[in-house]
Write a structure and sequence with these properties.
It is a single chain. This protein has one domain: Cytochrome P450 (Cytochrome p450, Orthogonal Bundle). The protein is built from 23 helices and twelve strands. The strands form four sheets. The protein has a five-stranded mixed beta sheet. A three-stranded antiparallel beta sheet has the order 4-12-9. The protein is an alpha+beta fold and 554 residues long. α10 runs antiparallel to α17, α17 runs parallel beside α21 and α18 packs across α21. A hairpin with a 2-residue loop joins β1 and β2.
Length: 554
């Protein structure tokens, strides 16, 4: 009986903790503290109380039993369909990701359960095309989900979860994204494209295929290094990966299987910061902080017009407490500004075989948008089929919940909106799995639901406008929320136009492009597989090259 009494007392404490404490609020940031507290209590109770172990056993059994029973039978999401394991714990999701990529797992769940699937105890994955406007539109009643606390205690524009924090930081960034500044940034991209062409020319001379996945990632990261630190990573010039970017890529590989468990990520970051891949993350953060410190010392010597980070550095110099924001912004800018562009360009060159030689690209990226409708359509189609965030960008409903496609999503629910799946809905795009740039400029009937296309997110603070793309198809869609959307589009236009104008390219004999799809990794951002292409100079470019050689001194 004494064993039973102690077990009952422990069980009562476990149920009480769940119903009065753990069932409320967010606990992912406190996961390391909770684990340490429990270990301390277990050690003390086990060592001091005669029947302490029975009490602890009762506590743990009843705590987890209460959690499981509540999530299966009484949770506000109990009526949504989904896998049984997902109703109980997100560990089920991570277990499934050990054998496949997240975008493919969510695709299979869509086929099995429909447009609204319970993929976690408090999570709904929504495949309805109205989800983007509902979670990010002007009338949205959502905030960013727990995943965005990844950088804590550092902050960044991308990870700011509240409107107040995001708005204040975005005003700082906006100062570096004026039309004049964007023109200056475009001029700084040209030397990098020249380096890219020299790499390809070297491969042509050596009669070997170009590793386009590497080259496109190198130009993307070099671009962002120049953008943030006023120095590139010199990967194109050295034709090798920078060690910090290698560390970053290895660290981001954790976000594939562990993204569903933000509490576990914080547990690992706090308790095991120097073990395995985790040390790569902290070494990369330290390197960024070192570069930012160097830049702070010479910020006055860098012209404002040429440097987007000038205003942020200036603010951090005057307000040292802003330095954690600066660190977070630099890391997220490198990732969000490099990987998505590179991933889309890999997809684009995997698909496109059209020309832009009739256009004078010296007029710049904006003229390309209006003069080359097929080029613009191809980029938009690549954004649709190769989304930068295949499944990422979770949101969380507030106290009033939201309604999507006639279905009410209760309060305090995480919403996943998988672009990879939604952009392939046949009821939204005719021949949804086929790369057809013409749908964007010649046959708009092939776009059955404009709401399904949200490559850069849907902003909360602006009226609908995609005028800078010169396409009327987006009149019903919200203004893109990504601050770097214009820069990204300009970069993709210029890089694609220069390469397609200068070269003809083909797939090496015996190879296919299936690896781009087959080996695509969903690491919050998309990481496509290997793309190898054989390039050859177009005839007019050969003539120009020979003329240039003829007029060289000597």
């Amino acid at each position: 009986m004494k064993f039973f009494a102690h077990t009952l007392i422990g069980g009562a404490v476990g149920v009480t903790c769940h119903l009065l404490l753990f069932i409320h609020h967010e606990w992912h940031l406190r996961a390391p503290d909770l684990l340490c507290y429990h270990l301390i209590v277990i050690a003390i109770v086990g060592a001091t109380l005669d029947k302490g172990l029975w009490m602890l056993l009762g506590y743990l059994i009843c705590l987890f039993s209460s959690i499981i029973i509540y999530r299966i039978f009484f949770h506000r999401l109990k009526h949504f369909p989904g896998p049984a394991g997902a109703r109980i714990t997100k560990i089920w999701h991570t277990w499934k990701l050990l054998g496949q990529q997240n975008h493919l797992l969510l695709k299979s769940l869509h086929h099995q359960y429909g447009d609204f699937v319970r993929t976690g105890p408090s999570e709904i994955t929504v495949y309805h095309p109205d989800v983007f406007m509902a979670i990010d539109g002007p009338q949205s009643n959502c905030v960013k989900a727990e995943w965005y606390d990844l950088l804590s205690p550092n902050q960044s524009l991308v990870t700011a979860r509240t409107k107040r924090l995001h708005g204040a930081r975005r005003r700082q960034w906006n100062r570096g994204f004026t039309s004049q500044a964007l023109d200056q940034y475009q001029s700084r991209l040209i030397p990098l494209i020249d380096q890219l062409e020299r790499c390809i020319d070297g491969d042509i001379t050596a009669e070997k295929a170009s590793e386009m996945t590497d080259l496109l990632y190198w130009i993307g990261f070099d671009r962002m290094g120049d953008f943030i630190f006023s120095r590139t990573f010199n990967m194109l010039s050295r034709q090798k990966w920078h060690h910090v970017i290698v560390l970053l890529q290895r660290a981001l590989s954790l976000l594939g299987p562990l993204s569903p468990l933000p509490w576990f990520l914080h547990l690992c970051f706090k308790l095991f910061p120097r073990i395995w891949i985790l040390k790569d993350w902290f070494q990369m953060v330290s390197w960024c902080e070192m570069r930012l410190t160097e830049r702070l010392d010479c910020v006055e010597n860098i012209p404002k017009a040429l440097d987007v980070a000038h205003y942020l550095l200036e603010d951090a110099r005057e307000n040292p407490h802003q330095f954690p924001w600066l660190t977070g912004d630099s890391i997220l800018a490198i990732v969000a500004g490099s990987e998505p562009i590179a991933a889309v360009l890999v997809g684009l060159f995997c698909e496109i075989y059209q020309e832009v030689e009739r256009v004078d690209i010296s007029d710049g990226a904006r003229s390309l948008g209006s003069s080359c409708p097929h080029l613009e359509g191809a980029i938009l189609e690549a954004l649709r089929l190769y989304p930068a965030l295949p499944t990422g960008g979770n949101r969380k409903t507030l106290k009033n919940g939201i309604t999507i496609g006639g279905t009410f999503i209760p309060p305090e629910t995480t919403i996943v909106a998988p672009r990879f799946c939604i952009s392939r809905r046949e009821d939204c795009f005719e021949q949804a799995h086929t790369f057809l740039p013409e749908r964007w400029y010649k046959t708009p009937r092939m776009i059955r639901n404009k709401a399904a296309f949200s490559p850069f997110g849907t902003g909360k603070y602006s009226r609908p406008s995609f005028s800078d793309w010169n396409f009327d198809l987006f009149d019903l869609q919200g203004h893109t929320s990504c601050l770097g959307r214009t820069l990204a589009m300009n970069d993709m236009r210029l890089i694609t136009a220069r390469l397609v104008r200068r070269y003809r390219f083909s797939v090496p004999d015996g190879e296919t492009m299936e690896s781009v799809w087959r080996d695509l990794k969903d690491q919050f951002t998309s990481n496509p597989g290997r793309l190898r292409l054989f390039f050859e100079l177009r005839e007019d470019c050969i003539v120009k090259s020979k003329l240039a050689d003829d007029i060289k001194p000597g």
